[in-house]
Amino acid sequence: MGIKGLQGFVATVCPDVCRMVDLREIAEKHRIDHPDFPPVIVVDAMSCVRYWYTPESWVCGGQWREYLAILEDFIKAFMAAGIKLVFYFDGVVEEKKRDEWIKRRFQNNKEIARIFQFIKTHRKQPGRGMFVVPSALPTFTRFALKSLGQKTVCTLQEADFEVAAYGLEHNCIGILGQDSDYLIYNTCPYFSIEKLRLDRLVTLMFSREHLCRALGLSLTHLPLFACLLGNDVVPERLLEGFWHKCLVTSPHKNNSYSRRANVILAVANYISKVPCSYSSLEHLKEMLPLGSDMTLLYRGVQSYLLPGQQSPWIPPNVTNCQTFSLQEQTAMCQDKEILQVAKEQHIRSENYTIFNILSSGETECSNSLEDERDTEIPGQALIYRPARQHIYSVLLESGKGGAYPLVKEWFVYFGNPLQQPELIQPVQPSVPGGTPNLKTLWFAKGPDVEKQRYSTFLACFHLQDGMEELQALEAPVAAFCCLLAYLMMQVSSLSLEDLNAFVAVILCLKGKSAAQLASLQLAQVDSRAVHLGAVFVRGLTTLLLANSACGFPFRMDDLMPWEMFDGKLFQEKYQQSHRGCSLEGLLEGNESLYAPFHNLKSFICKACTAKKRTIQSRPRGDGFITGTQQREFNPRFQQTHRSSFVPPYHNQMRGFLWRNPQPQGKK
């Protein structure tokens, strides 16, 4: 989160704290001083993703191939300068930050509602001023960077601490990010991603020493300074009275500055007069309404102390609590081998979310670009919950009497007040021969186990009967069919036109370059297609979760959005399909795609029919819908529609997109 207003204060009140630097020059100096150690920049990736995502289109579900190319160019620019990058991603929402996380989620909900209202009114994407990152962008960025050969770390605690610790321990030339906490940690220099000019490799560097000089403080003051301005440990609401007292006595008050700037100067003035000792903190009891919890300040200061660092503000009998061992001691999974493997995969960014579930029994999902006024499409959190319940069952062995421990979910969807986590009951999937235990799925070898992994994965999506057909397909296509079939089963309002659009996307995407997709122009943007794009991409993260739990029947690279989805292309196919476009038009005149198109549709329709779900035709034409009208559609779409697609199903899958060169061979 950082310290509210500190970076803005630096820019306006004491601009000497930051200066433009040439990263090539800094790297060259490092090579001269440390010839045996290449220059390294540690990257706070979570604060960078919104600056990395520069494709023009951002509402349609993500321009994933364009984004992948942008990341590749970013890496190449640093490689050309001989600079190695190490990327860090938040792997957990710490309990102390949950309230702030919830607050941000509700703020994001309001922003998303405004975006949908704009799209419905103007039939186009809003300007960059309303930009929100595409759903699941941080998750897929992590896997993208890994696929591009980069060292990618998923943290066990809040990322800023681990980033600062890595920078200090490995003598990095700097931290690249956008978080004012890096002005407080006593670590390597802090570079701004916002001000980075990639073509010249120049950016702003912030100096802690110059900040201290401007405020009349020393480096040891900075952690207490941050706490008394309000941070993730010490909430601002407890500090208002203290700020008022500081303002009254401050000699630096300037009416041309904002109130926040004057508060920063006043707090710095107060701290500069306090002796650097832990007994000094005792005097703050009179000024802060902390009640009996005087440990708040200790914990706040301590949160900035990196391994091996000490502070004069902390009593000698208080030890550094930045450790993860407590969570492991109380882990939901008691099998140490399983937990250790999950932890190692988590840190190396090889799995998705399962360590959080196995260790703390808790998981979360942030906002998605979903239209809360569209009552026909449930929240993605609810659509994929049955699949997650099966995945939880695979991960968590049942206890005595066959009972599973409950999983705590913090998932954002319309109507969820997020006052407490929802307690989710794991549900055993219907795996032929029974669900294998986790040790079998993760550690056993041989063709029989490979089959068990695949069938368990499919059972999480109610597709265990389609194993032979799916295994005949290329892995990304099989995964796509799995997700789309599940989606069509779960959401009764999805139509034949929606199905046609999705299938056309994966077929037409093959062979298209990032540049070709970037040049695609949309005459207008449909809000329902925006919503469906976000739901589909969130479904891909559910595939990642199932794959991680089931021992990786798929390569993670085969489950990535750039293999099977493009936001603008889906918008185009969705609008074409709902206008009654011919098959030739939908498939861009490529006759070789006709048979695969029908085969994939046939498989999905057969899977739905087995679950008593008939996919009906419901063309919407150009019927762009306002939010108030949309609520009235629900009863109308419950009526029976004559047009449906339930063709006789034959095993025609083997003629399309082979997994291997020999059609008759099994995986």
The geometry reads as: globular
Helix content: 40-55%
Main sheet record: 7 strands, mixed
Tell me the fraction of residues in β-strands, as a range. Answer: 5-15%
- Provide the structure class: alpha/beta
What's the count of strands? Answer: 10
Poorly predicted regions = 321-328, 625-656, 658-667
GO biological process, one term: peroxisome proliferator activated receptor signaling pathway
Organism: Phaetusa simplex
Keywords: Activator, Differentiation, Nucleus, Transcription, Transcription regulation
Protein name: Constitutive coactivator of peroxisome proliferator-activated receptor gamma
Keywords:
activator; disordered C terminus; seven-stranded mixed sheet; differentiation; alpha/beta
Descriptive account of the structure:
It comes from Phaetusa simplex (large-billed tern). The chain is α/β, with parallel strands linked by helices and 667 residues long. It has a domain at 219-275 and 277-312. Helix content is 46%, strand content 7%. It contains 30 helices and 10 strands. It has a 7-stranded mixed sheet, sandwiched between helices. Strands 8-9-10 form a 3-stranded mixed sheet. Helix 9 crosses helix 11 (259-272) and helix 18 (385-395) runs antiparallel to helix 20 (447-460). It is globular.
